[in-house]
Design a protein that fits this description.
Order of helices and strands: HHHHH
Largest sheet: none
Helix content: over 70%
């Protein structure tokens, strides 16, 4: 094969590689967009659940569970830290959506519909440093209470 033929073959191979790369990039971008939309929907449902939990027509059990799920979903502290391989993101990927799904079944439909309308009106989750401090303090208090309970349980005379 001549030098020109070798160069043409390499050029064809590079073009094919570029085509494959572009196709993979397109698929990746589509999947990334779909994941972003799912995350936005999860955030909207979390905000809607927050509004539904504050509604007086919501049953007490649903309010309590919804409060726990919303607090955990919005909390900067996880039960399993995210840096723990595989398990770290497991709670974010499984526990929060399952908790939301359960709560959404417990809340009356008309309350949930009104809450979703209110949540749709909010473009982004309110970012309040004071609320973040309160949530962190609540988690620290819970950890301290559990620690004190464990200490007493194992050091009781």
């Amino acid at each position: 094969m001549s030098a020109g033929g070798v160069l043409q073959e390499r050029a064809r191979a590079l073009k094919e590689r570029a085509r494959v790369f572009k196709e993979r990039a397109r698929v990746f971008n589509e999947r990334a967009r779909a994941l972003k939309e799912r995350a936005r929907a999860l955030e909207r449902e979390t905000v809607a659940l927050y509004f539904a939990a504050r509604d007086p027509r919501t049953p007490l059990g649903a309010k309590l569970l919804a409060g726990l799920v919303v607090a955990y979903a919005l909390s900067p502290i996880d039960l399993i830290p995210d840096f723990v391989p595989v398990l770290g993101f497991l709670d974010d990927l499984i526990l929060v959506p399952l908790g939301l799904a359960l709560c959404l079944r417990l809340v009356p439909r008309e309350v949930l519909a009104e809450a979703r309308v209110r949540a749709a009106g909010i473009a982004a989750r309110p970012r309040s440093y004071a609320a973040a401090v309160v949530i962190v303090l609540l988690w620290l208090m819970a950890a301290a209470l559990i620690g004190a309970w464990i200490y007493r349980a194992f050091n009781a005379p």
